[in-house]
Amino acid sequence: MINSFRFLSCLAALLALLSGSVTGARAERFYLDITAQDVRKVMVAVPWFSGDTAQGRQMAELLARALEFHGFIQVVDPARHGGGSEADWKGLGVDYVILGKYETAASGMMVEGRLLDVAEDEVRFGRRFRGTVQQQDDMVLRLCDAIIEEFTGEPGISRSRLAYVSDATGRKEAYVADALGLGHRQITRHKHLVVSPRFLPDGIHLSYSSYHTGNQNLYLTDLRQDKATRAISRRKGMNLAPAWSPDGRSMILTLSKDGSPDLYLLDPQGNVKERLTSNAGINVSPSFSPDGGTIAFVSDRSGTAQVYLMDLATRQSRRLTFEGRENTEPAWSPKGDLIAFTGRKDGAYQIFTINPNDPSSMRQLTTGWGDCESPTWSPDGRQIAFSRRGETRQQLWVMMKDGRELRLLYNLKGNQSYPQWTGPME
């Protein structure tokens, strides 16, 4: 039996947010295989936290929503069990029940959850969090991500964030929101066109390109504040869409200062260290492999826009995509096994994936109406977000990496584009 406590780092400066295992959970673990297309969803019940109170209902509803976001869990409608913690779970077809409770005191708040395995009639997992009352939702999402880790061996992504561009104010500005859409925060206020927001690996800083000075310059802002931003590349022409190395010590940026757009290696301060492409058409849209040893990028050196790979140790490039006349915007999975990209087929843009070691493995994920563009991977490598343009609006959508579970990510005013996914900001 587990009797130890595990502590997480604090979120608030004044009161630590603590988590610990709850006694009674089993020590052995097994992980669900959720990669198969025909896998049955895990049926989970989430009774109201600490009985039938408005606050307990809200917490249970948030946890249920966060669990279902991961794509392999289906939460049983609370109406089928009255929201209570006692029911004929086997008769309802439930695999697991999450027994949640909370306590509030002058010193803060405690949120706890235990995972009941219905078939075994045992609690296989428990976790407790402490924090401020204002951190209630964050503690519930931490519980969700811990439960997902118990199921899969990897933390959940309910606290992950996306950057995107929106014209909700009448101008295209950069925003950041959490994956569930609980909070949308405007980052830029240039009142001019902003494109290609990119998180740095630390998750604290965001780079983007803006035209507000009359040139497409590259800027960097610290997301822990709202007042200052600084230019890191003001070279004449394009300063566009950097790919930040996994260690954050360099970036690869598209510059057109010497003529046609090419890829350059820069340090984080914006100093050019090396030109990576030249005399080979237009070269744009770099994306690092997880190990930092290779980049995917787009070049028209063959006559049409295609995805290429460059070995950064040798600077040798090879073509990856051969199907279709326009393949752009590569995004390397954090798992390293796939590259998502935008391809044009039958007059529309769609999302595809390809194995970087197998040019014949190209697979189309989206079909139907609209143009689907700008794919970005979830931190766990299991989902892909992208923009989808219909007749009247452009919005952000998300799906599993094989194209299943396609759904609208946010329903917001205006148009949204250029999504970029990252983990939580601790």
Which features would summarize this protein structure in a list?
mainly beta; Rossmann fold; Neuraminidase; 2 domains; 6-stranded mixed sheet; 4-stranded antiparallel sheet; 2 helices; 8% helix
Structure description:
By secondary structure, the chain is mostly beta strands. It contains two helices and 30 strands. It folds into two domains: 18-152, Rossmann fold (3-Layer(aba) Sandwich), CATH 3.40.50; 161-422, Neuraminidase. It has helices at residues 54-69, 136-152, and strands at 18-21, 42-45, 73-75, 96-105, 108-117, 122-131, 161-166, 173-178, 184-186, 194-199, 205-210, 217-222, 229-233, 239-244, 251-255, 262-266, 272-275, 283-288, 294-299, 306-311, 316-319, 327-332, 339-345, 348-355, 358-364, 371-377, 383-389, 394-400, 407-408, 416-422. The strands form seven sheets. It has a six-stranded mixed beta sheet with strand order 1-6-5-4-2-3, with helices on one face. β12 (217-222) and β13 form a beta hairpin. α1 (54-69) packs across α2. It is globular and about 70 Å long.
Short précis:
The protein is mainly beta and 426 residues long. The chain contains 2 helices and 30 strands. The protein has 2 domains: 18-152, Rossmann fold (3-Layer(aba) Sandwich), CATH 3.40.50; 161-422, TolB, C-terminal domain (Neuraminidase), CATH 2.120.10.
> Which overall shape is indicated by the principal axes computed on the Cα atoms?
globular
Domain module count: 2
Name the CATH class of the largest domain.
Answer: Mainly Beta
Strand line-up of the largest beta sheet:
1-6-5-4-2-3
The number of helical elements comes to 2
- The CATH topology assignment of the largest domain is Neuraminidase
